[in-house]
Amino acid sequence: MAAAVSADSWLYEQFNTDGPVRTDYDASGQQVAMLNLDRTSGAGFNSKEQYLFGEFTIQMKLIPGNSAGTVSCFYLTSGDDDGHDEIDMEFMGNETGQPVVLNTNVWASGDGKKEHQFNLWFDPSADYHTYTIIWNPTNIIFKVDGNVIRCFKRYADLAYPSSKPMTLHATLWDGSYWATEKGKIPIDWSGAPFVVSYKSYSADACVSGGSCPAGSDSFYATACVSGSACHLGRDGWMSKQLDAAEWGTVRWAERSYMRYNYCNDGWRFPQGLPAECSRN
């Protein structure tokens, strides 16, 4: 069984770090991890454990002002090989006054290109906001401040991340070639160093090779043996399906804030849209 991780030590207890990462504490005693980006280096942290299904939540405060060209991430990946699995929440910076774009994506057995992108409806640099990924055997759910904005469903005959344990990552990097207006607006380095802050991380997840107790408090990582029956988790994440109200929230996000849906991009898929597009 995984040991409890105290609120003031989550970063170094659960993650390895890369690049300029600093820590501090907020007024409530929560540890804050700050990733820095300048001309010489980005930064990140990655989990010491690998997970097979789980609920992962973190609070983030993004770069204020002109963040064009920067990319801040919270994601899971099985690696960087051609057949890898990955679940992404990527925050694509923008010019001052323009909305930051949240890019969600799913890769399965090396097959990606499944982006849904949303303009955030608040200033993500003014305060912390909560971002959640729920990954279970039947769907992948993306949430912002508790609101479901996307559900990627599993179909028996299509690729889905279900067998490769994944590591959790948070990164801040230079995405000038891609992030803002398809690379038209690069980073203005006069604003460096850029800082993204993370706090209040929690994982209720199946750790590859471990055992799986029933549920957890917010700073436990529960575990189950990879390939075994792992049915219980906090708030029922393992069997989580969207109810009617949550599907309503998805439609609200799509109607009001979606800026890109791969299922509407016939130019990108001249041989026909991916099969799941006609089923959702």
From TrEMBL:
Record's signal peptide: none
Keyword Lyase: no
Domain GH16: 1-198
EC number: 2.4.1.207
Record-annotated active site: 86 (nucleophile), 90 (proton donor)
Gene Ontology molecular-function annotations: hydrolase activity, hydrolyzing O-glycosyl compounds; xyloglucan:xyloglucosyl transferase activity
Changes after translation: Contains at least one intrachain disulfide bond essential for its enzymatic activity.
Keyword set, alphabetical order: Apoplast, Cell wall, Cell wall biogenesis/degradation, Disulfide bond, Glycosidase, Hydrolase, Secreted, Transferase
Domain of life: Eukaryota
GO annotation (BP), single: cell wall biogenesis
Record's subcellular location: Secreted, Cell wall; Secreted, Extracellular space, Apoplast
UniProt cross-references to PROSITE patterns, sorted A to Z: GH16_2 (PS51762)
A GO cellular component annotation in the UniProt record: apoplast
InterPro entries recorded: Beta-glucanase-like (IPR000757), Beta-glucanase/XTH (IPR044791), ConA-like_dom_sf (IPR013320), XET_C (IPR010713), XTH (IPR016455)
Glycosylation sites noted in the Swiss-Prot or TrEMBL record: 94
Annotated family: Belongs to the glycosyl hydrolase 16 family.
Function: Catalyzes xyloglucan endohydrolysis (XEH) and/or endotransglycosylation (XET). Cleaves and religates xyloglucan polymers, an essential constituent of the primary cell wall, and thereby participates in cell wall construction of growing tissues.
Name used for this protein in its record: Xyloglucan endotransglucosylase/hydrolase
